[in-house]
Amino acid sequence: MENKNVPLYTVILILGIPFIYATYLYPELPETIPTHFNFKGEADGWGGRDSIFLGPGIIAFAGLFTYFLLSNIKKIDPKRSRQMDSSFYQNMGVLTNLFLTCISMVILYVTAHPGFPIEKILFPLLGLSFAATGWFFPKFSQNYFAGFKLPWTLENESNWNETHKVAGKVWLICGSLQVIAGILLSAIPSFIIFFANVIVMVLVPTIFSYRMFKNGNKLP
């Protein structure tokens, strides 16, 4: 067995945890359970108790797709950068699946415990994912699948590198603020801050990249 296959087994194990938890919860579930929650953390969709396995199934599919995409990014990316570290993207795929599993576990718990304030866990988790992504950004090699794939970053490697350094700082800051807001604030203020953070995390690196492009791909 080659070492590169080990993370795949790790991913399968990680994604299997919610199915084990769902199986544990299933005998005690009522015939109708919540299947969707609004931004206030309130249930606004319902289904039979068999639907307890639907969420983990969707997340597992998305997780495996993401893992295989990131693991093979060097093979399928048109740029095929020699500097691209395949193990870095593979490990990122594993961490992404760990985050997805945490989200799945939170949803399953709230499904079995109606009234639990899901936002107190969900928003801090999202903040942690933003911060973790920010930590990864400066390590991204130029590619067509992961990162800020703008016309100017894809055209110029220096623009790509500097943009992702800026993005890393912005995402770390916004992610940390989201964690704090999720812990201290109620659902609606947390959602407003989440929405504002997303706008900032997208606009700031994009504007920086464009300004650098207009400046001849030199730091503005």
Brief synopsis:
With 220 residues, the protein is mainly alpha-helical. The protein is built from eight helices and two strands; from the N terminus they run αββααααααα.
Structure report:
With 220 residues, the chain is mainly alpha-helical. The chain has two domains: 1-116, no CATH class; 117-220, no CATH class. It is built from eight helices and two strands; from the N terminus they run H-E-E-H-H-H-H-H-H-H. The protein has helices spanning 6-25, 54-71, 73-76, 86-112, 119-136, 151-155, 157-184, 187-214; strands at residues 32-37, 43-48. A two-stranded antiparallel ribbon has the order 1-2. It is globular, with a radius of gyration of 20 Å. The mean pLDDT is 83.
Keywords:
220 residues, mainly alpha, 8 helices, globular
Explain the layout of strands and helices.
Blueprint: H1 6-25, E1 32-37, E2 43-48, H2 54-71, H3 73-76, H4 86-112, H5 119-136, H6 151-155, H7 157-184, H8 187-214
Antiparallel strand pairs: 1-2
Beta percentage is: 5-15%
The structure class reads: mainly alpha
Unreliable segments (pLDDT under 50, ≥5 consecutive)? none
Q: From the alpha carbons, calculate the radius of gyration and give it in angstroms.
A: 20 Å
What is the count of DSSP helices, taking H or I runs of 4+ residues?
8
Portion of residues within helices: 55-70%
Please give the order of strands in the largest beta sheet. 1-2
Question: What is the residue-mean pLDDT, rounded to a whole number?
Answer: 83
* Helix and strand element order: HEEHHHHHHH
Query: How many beta-strand elements?
Result: 2
Count of structural domains: 2
Largest sheet: 2 strands, antiparallel
What form results from the Cα inertia axes?
A: globular
| N- to C-terminal distance | 50 Å
